[in-house]
Amino acid sequence: MVKQLDRPRSGGLWRIFSSPKGQQSHFVETEIPSMANKSQLSQAAMLSGPAKLTATTGLVDKLTRDLTSVNLLPHRLSERDAALEELKVYGRDPRNADPIFTREGIEMLTRHAFDSPSSTTSRNALRCLCNALLLKAECRQFFVDLGYEAKVCNKLKNDNRDDEFLASRLVFLTTYDTDTKLEQLIDKYHLADSMIKNLERHAKYHSDGGRVTADPMQDMALAETLKLLFNITHHCKQKVPSFTQAVPHIVTILCNGSFQVDKPLDSPIGPLVNALLNLDLGAKEVQSSLYPPAKLTALSDRLVSLLEQSRAVYQQEELESTVTALIGVIQMVHGHAPQDVVVLIRQKLLPTEADRKEVLGRSASLPSWLLKNSTNPVAPKLRDIISNLLFDLSDKDASRFVENVGYGFASGFLYNKNISIPQNASEAFSDDAGSSSRPINPVTGQFLDSEQHSDVPEMTEAEKEREAEKLFVLFERLRANGIISVENPVRTAVEEGRFEELPDDYREDVD
């Protein structure tokens, strides 16, 4: 299991492909407190040091005794819920709240969460429990050791968004730093079936054009289910087929959902994209959802639109953790698409004639943005996935790849993949290649008649000799330091007689 919880993980992917940084550190506040006096909760939030520790200890003891002696009788249910709400306030900061984060404290909260006949008490305890597992890694194993897997999964069967959010969050947190048996949750307790059913409910909700007001709890529960789906399918790959039926619902929500977000890949849109990443998009039973007959490009258009929006919003340092997953999903959708969809995706993502009026990668278009980031030094995973996408868009053919993106962008990728590179860049361009008959510079990808030639005078022979000497020295230093192991090209040229030693009194003829 992953040993960090500071940011959503990627498993190679989720930590990179998740929604905005810090989202996972949010505490569970899914509804306004109703059982406890608000002024009392405000006072509790102000406590610190020994006073907070004393108050926390008292509440934990009181709630623990209630489990055995029924100290808080059913008719005094509001008192029990008020105690849990107050405890939740203390549990937001683990300092001087130690009793909450002990094995005994976690057991007390778990029993109130899953053994109470009151749904209100259960949810109040679940909020405390989720916050505790978020803040203290050891609490996750404490919870797993209690053996409440069946009851957690049963909670997900409820047609209730609070229960979906809290139970999904709880299972999600146990995928870090614990020995929880994900395969058993799926096979024995039908976790996948419950999650797919919840996604079906969300799809129906977002397909209902008659909705008047948005329900924030819907989006919160949806995001938590999607995050859990990603983690399970990453860590339990043998059970990915159990979640294939989730694909149509995710696609429906992604294409039909209307979300109020500040950035295009904010939750729940980012998690919707991420969730597709580990699923089998090649499965026969989901093809009609990915490419609906009524509009074959519905999904691909939505994904490319998100990419277009994202490139204008996210800063360089954000791209790796936000956009990489989106490009990975576009690559998967392209890989399984019918020919009509393939053609349209390529038209939007490969350089156009307008892009070739300049050196490729310099215009303001989406294809140029992709090319520029295919060599992004601060986003290695992003640049790799972009290069792989562009190679796929070129039918995985080296010559066509060079034709599409230029020898300059293509050569490094092909070399790293150990794919044969055309000996001469111009060999990659056949007479009928490309969308135009205008000659193209095979290295830069620019139309030759659009190139601007420098007015700088040609170097003199003496200047050329000095530059050759500098190049010779540079290669010798690189060889001596072990950075490269190739033969010095200047030395080779001299040995082959392609360099002429000029006398010291040589003067170049000047017309």
TrEMBL record:
<dbReference type="GO" id="GO:0007186">
    <property type="term" value="P:G protein-coupled receptor signaling pathway"/>
</dbReference>
<dbReference type="InterPro" id="IPR011989">
    <property type="entry name" value="ARM-like"/>
</dbReference>
<keyword id="KW-0344">Guanine-nucleotide releasing factor</keyword>
<dbReference type="GO" id="GO:0005737">
    <property type="term" value="C:cytoplasm"/>
</dbReference>
<dbReference type="InterPro" id="IPR016024">
    <property type="entry name" value="ARM-type_fold"/>
</dbReference>
<dbReference type="GO" id="GO:0001965">
    <property type="term" value="F:G-protein alpha-subunit binding"/>
</dbReference>
<dbReference type="GO" id="GO:0005085">
    <property type="term" value="F:guanyl-nucleotide exchange factor activity"/>
</dbReference>
<keyword id="KW-0143">Chaperone</keyword>
<protein>
    <recommendedName>
        <fullName>Guanine nucleotide exchange factor synembryn</fullName>
    </recommendedName>
</protein>
<dbReference type="InterPro" id="IPR019318">
    <property type="entry name" value="Gua_nucleotide_exch_fac_Ric8"/>
</dbReference>
<comment type="similarity">
    <text>Belongs to the synembryn family.</text>
</comment>
<dbReference type="Pfam" id="PF10165">
    <property type="entry name" value="Ric8"/>
</dbReference>
